[in-house]
Amino acid sequence: MSGYIRKRGSKWYYSFEVASLNGTRKRVEKVGGTTKKEAERALRKSLQEYEETGAIFEPSETSVADYMNFWLEEYVALNLAQNTYDNYEMVIRLHINPAIGKNRLSATAPETLQKYINDKQRDGYARKTLSIHHSILNSAFKQAVHPYKLIRENPMQYVYIPRKKREQTTREDLKILSLPDIQKVIDFIGRVNTFYIPFMIGFHTGMRRGEVCGLKWDMVDLDRGTIEVDKAMSHKDEEGNWVLGPPKNNSSYRKFFMGETLTAILKEHRLQQKKNKLRYGNHYIDNDFVCTKENGEFVSPYSIKWSCDNIKKKIGVDMGFHSLRHTHATLLLERGAPIKDIQKKLGHARASITIDTYSHLTEKMQDETVDILNDLSSKLNF
Asked: What is the sign of the dihedral through the CA atoms of 157, 159, 163 and 169?
């Protein structure tokens, strides 16, 4: 099969004949470039593609914004968790579409996407945030190639996350609580406060806020002292009701021992719930949630946030609920707990995530490592 090259105005065109339809011969002509060599290369590539697949690639005129919105609704909304959808929607709406949304999808080059990622780093976004933006764009553009066939190849395969050295995260950055601050919070909230049980669960287990709010008694075994995480309170629906959905990711499905202290606290709390139910009678809200108010109403993520803000305002302890997760992990690491056990308990997908997040915070671990080596060295004759 051969084709033809010709110049029209300032551009060079290539053409070739394709299969006839109903006995009528058909010729395809396309712009090949501004030079004859560009047109010859485009012709050879199109002929090869046509001979291999029998199809003629037509670049999409769709804009990046239109495609990203389509991908969000037709793939993300139908296949991924609601929390993931909410996060992706925010990134696309507030960042990707305003920056590159007007670009034609088929004309969006790797350098445009690389500059987008680089600009985000220059604006001070953390590497983890850059990874999320990169992942969203890569997944979307990859599917634009297949199955949607809107572009020929994925330009994100050539885009990397800059390796700029950043300052180490400190205890203050993660708002890791000291033991005196923990005691200060416990003394402030007391046992009758609605926030007491969520606080104790967060401190003793490192569970996420949505996981704690979504915890029900059928996920707690008070006899064996275990908790099984298989759902989380994630968002409100269109009617304003909180929705229970799957946890953050596959590794977030987990089961672990909670320890004697928390088991005893929850046993006492369960008994108090039953007393409250008798006292409130028909006015008691019986929903099987672990974290509830006196009348049985479940504790929502908003309620927990309010409690954390109130603690900062009233007693000066700067904490978010995630502080308890960071505190839990750091205390375990400093006391020699195996990384793999902490990873599984927190629901991290990989042990490297646990190590990267917390290991540089634990000077005590480093000192103990040196002590071990010094102890061995003292037994040798150097």
From this structure: negative
